[in-house]
C-alpha cells in the first residue's frame, strides 16, 4: 500500500515549542499564574485559543473576550519576534536525513500542525518543498486530539488512515493519530508519550531500516 508520512511541526521538525513556552510564560506571569514546564505539556499541539483557556483554567481565572483577544495577539507577536532570525539551523537533529530518505524513496510527505504560523516556519528553514501537502491551524476547525488535521492530510494524499504514519511530540497529537487509526510515533519523552505505538527520543534514534519497514509494511 501507498503510505503517507505526516509530520507535526512544533517540537518535531523545529524546536519552536520552547518559544511557545516562553511567550505563554510571560502572559501567565503577568496574570499571576504559576506556569511550569509540566503545565506546558498540556498546551503542546493545542490551538492558540485553547491554550489560553487552559492557562486561565490553571489559574482559576475568568476573562472577557476583549482581554483574551489582547493576550492572544500579544502571545503571537512575542512568539513571532523569536522567529525573525530563524533558519535551517533550527531544524531538529536527524529530521533532514529522514525527509531526504523519504523523498529519495518517493514517499508522500505531509505536514499536520495546529499552528497558524506553519508555512512561514517551513519557508524560513528552507524545507517547504519537501511537503506534498500542508494542513495547518488555518485549515482545520477541530484541534488535536481531534484527528481532523491528520485525516485531512491523508485524504489529500489519497491514502487510507491505516497507511498513514504520524510523527508527534504532544500527547494530544498522539491521541489524535490513535483515534484516526494511524501509526503513531512519539518523538520525545517515553513517560509522557506512552500512548504512542513507537517512541524515539529524537530523529537520530530512528534507523533507516525502521523507516524502510514502514514503507514496505503491507
Ligand atoms: C503547535 C504547538 C502548540 C501551539 C499551536 C498553535 O502545534 O504545539 O503549542 O499552541 O501549534 O500555534 P500558533 O499559535 O503558531 O498558531 P503543532 O501541532 O505544530 O505542534
Ligand atoms: Mg508539536
Automatic annotation (TrEMBL):
Its EC number is 5.4.2.6. It catalyses: beta-D-glucose 1-phosphate = beta-D-glucose 6-phosphate. One of its GO terms (biological process) is carbohydrate metabolic process. The active site is at residues 8, 10. Keywords: Carbohydrate metabolism, Isomerase, Magnesium, Metal-binding, Phosphoprotein. It comes from the Bacteria. Mg(2+) binds at residues 8, 10, 168-169. The keyword Magnesium applies. Pfam families: Hydrolase. Its cofactor is Mg(2+). InterPro entries: B-phosphoglucomutase_hydrolase (IPR010976), Beta-PGM (IPR010972), Beta-PGM-like (IPR051600), HAD-like_sf (IPR036412), HAD-SF_hydro_IA (IPR006439), HAD_sf (IPR023214), PGP-like_dom2 (IPR023198). One of its GO terms (molecular function) is magnesium ion binding. Binds 2 magnesium ions per subunit. Signal peptide: none annotated. Gene3D superfamilies: HAD superfamily/HAD-like, Putative phosphatase, domain 2. Substrate binds at residues 8-10, 24, 43-48, 51, 75, 113-117, 144. Coiled coil: none annotated. This is Beta-phosphoglucomutase.
